[in-house]
Amino acid sequence: MSDAAILCRFEAARSIVRDAADLAMAMRPPPGGPSGKQKSAQDWLTEADGAVEALISERIGALFPEDGFQGEEEGRTRTGRLRWVVDPIDGTSNYARGRSRWCVSLGLMDGDQPVAGIIQAPALHETYTAVRGHGAFLNGRPIKASPVTDTRSAMVEMGWSNKVPDGIYAAKMAAILELGAMPRSGGSGALALADVACGRLDGYLEMVINLWDVAAALVLLEETGARFSPFLRDGGLDRGITLLATAPGIATDLAVALAVPLD
């Protein structure tokens, strides 16, 4: 697909994501105990998930009816060479408690290749954007991956999932600590990957993560010089698999310690 066609869609999508983020903010539960339906351990579904996804799907469909669409909640509802992939509320466990670390994530794929992404975290007043070959930005300012080269000064996040046995999680976290890195866990895979892209984090590991969580973030990582494991090549288009994203200066050390190959 031509660069012009992708840029046209990207500009339209920015407005759509803003409206979707406004809707999510309006529906956000107040601070307190979790609100919504619990699908499994620590896995929540709120009314906003469906409403935000429906808004994006309808607006994208009206503007670009020839494009495919895939959402976390409804799956693939339309097919096309260009495909939009949305996580309406990434970080739902945070959102359901009225916390601020969550986002609306929308990626555009040309075939199997991510070409544009928008991650908007309205409660944090932050928007990440990227188009392949055109750089990546946070609130309009260029970003790049961290320059850190020593794991003893690195900050590394690991996502938690009920799909990962406790022993594996503990072993990977122990490997991070053995490197001298400072561990973190924030509850939003898309925002963690965006943090690697802008240098707030030096690494992020998620043992089981899905395409809708990463479609927008992969473009950010690529445009900012971060390195990451071959998620798309190794099956991430169809199922949840492992993803490691890292600052280039500690990529080898982190990949070896965590036993996750990079590209």
UniProtKB/TrEMBL annotation:
Amino acids binding Mg(2+) 2: D90
SUPFAM superfamilies (UniProt xref): Carbohydrate phosphatase
Keywords assigned by UniProt, alphabetized: Hydrolase, Magnesium, Metal-binding
InterPro entries from the UniProt entry: Inositol_monoP_metal-BS, Inositol_monophosphatase-like, Inositol_monophosphatase_CS
Entry binding sites for Mg(2+) 1: E72, D87, I89, D213
Cofactor: Mg(2+)
Lineage top rank: taxon: Bacteria
One annotated GO biological process: signal transduction
Gene3D superfamilies, sorted: 3.40.190.80, Fructose-1,6-Bisphosphatase, subunit A, domain 1 (3.30.540.10)
A Pfam family this chain is assigned to: Inositol_P
GO molecular function: inositol monophosphate 1-phosphatase activity; metal ion binding
Similarity annotation: Belongs to the inositol monophosphatase superfamily.
Protein's recorded name: Inositol monophosphatase
